[in-house]
Protein 1
Amino acid sequence: MSLSYGLLVTTPVGTGPDRTALASVMIRTVVVALVVAGLLTACGESAPPATSTPPGATEPAQETKQHVLELEVTGTATITTLTFTLDGKASEEKNVTLPWRKRIEIPYGTGRHEYNLAMQRGAGKVFATATVDGKLVTQTGGNSSGGGTATSNLSGSFED
């Protein structure tokens, strides 16, 4: 009994040279077939991945990844006018009660974005923060006493 190339070949007792030569040819043929099959498998193209969507049906839309800009203003001041501007587009709120929060989702891949939060306020303290994707980007604070108004600004930018 002999082991050759991972195949077990038995030779019957009392065999002649013709049987040994035939076994040798068969072994070489099997080895060549295995090598060729291995090369074809390694070099061939793989089958396309199986999908659960039947032919002709539409694929479900992939969820678009978003940046999240969160603004928060806290304190004791009376905010008479709060103006939020994002990429040149402004919105304004009057007589804002604190705390004030705003959350804006912005699609990835849309470049650079600039924001500004202008707070006109009376007496008291104010503290404002801006986070992008949960990370603190900018913060500001102020305290004013007595008559008149003060303005605090929170500005920043981010990009992909």
Note: Residues 21 and 27 are 10 Å apart (CA to CA).
Protein 2
Amino acid sequence: MIDHQILAIRPLSAPGILLSAMIVLFSADCIAQGLNPRKAEINAFVHADANGDGVLTKPEFVVFVKEMAKTGQSTARTIRFFRAYNYALSVADKDKDGIVTPKEMRSADNSHRAGQ
């Protein structure tokens, strides 16, 4: 016998639907680019990307790093500890346009992990 109370799904609010759609679209775009983001990265990015344009400005980048640090991600924890947001942004922003794309962040994180 199925307990219908367990299967009851609360309807999403308009902001909840929008957030869910942004997560799905962002995830699909990152996977298509071969970035293979982890769930925590997707959630942090979507949370930080205040205007939903798919890139992070400096204030959005700071929010992203703080969110990732909360998940225990070591690079983000180090950046947060030293408050090295400007330095981290300058490293990640390869084309120096003042914004960071998911691809730039993945490249910077991979380089950091490789000791470069």
Note: Residues 1 and 7 are 12 Å apart (CA to CA).
